[in-house]
Amino acid sequence: MERVVLTRLGLAAIPTCTEPPEPERVDPPKPREVAAPTVVRPAPVERRTICTDQRVAWVEFVVPARKADGRSWDARGGVPDLRYTIYIEGQKLYESPVHETLEWRHQPQAEVRVAPQQQLSIQLLDSDQQSSETIAVFRSIIPADTSEALDVSAGAATARIKLECIEG
Hints:
Blueprint: H1 2-9, E1 54-62, E2 81-88, E3 91-95, E4 99-100, E5 103-106, E6 113-114, E7 119-127, E8 132-141, E9 150-154, E10 157-165
Antiparallel strand pairs: 1-5, 1-6, 1-10, 2-3, 2-4, 2-7, 7-8, 9-10
């Protein structure tokens, strides 16, 4: 009977049992590697000071060693006697003392207030005892940003004007 059953099942011998094979090990899928987020830092922003009420902190002048026509500033061949006057919108607000030099940085001895978009004019003179001669007239429109000094030139003479914000 054994042979009959084996033949019906298509087997030549009784199968023997062995340990079942271990199931194939399948590792769980690895999480997708995500690149670390790129940190985007904004470009450095230039420091700006914007205000509506300002004052002239200082002015600085550089004058050529000789007049435009090649002559010296005074009869003795010396440097000019610098004096400047500040005008805002055509109104005289300050006149400096005289200083004998070719380069001069000066802080006005009075508070000269300005506002953005006003016209600032500075007249620079060679102020000798008997007469005064205009060296240059510097003109600029006041900006709202006071972070940088204003650079203005007139002929060979230059001026730098530093504005400061007035708080309160």
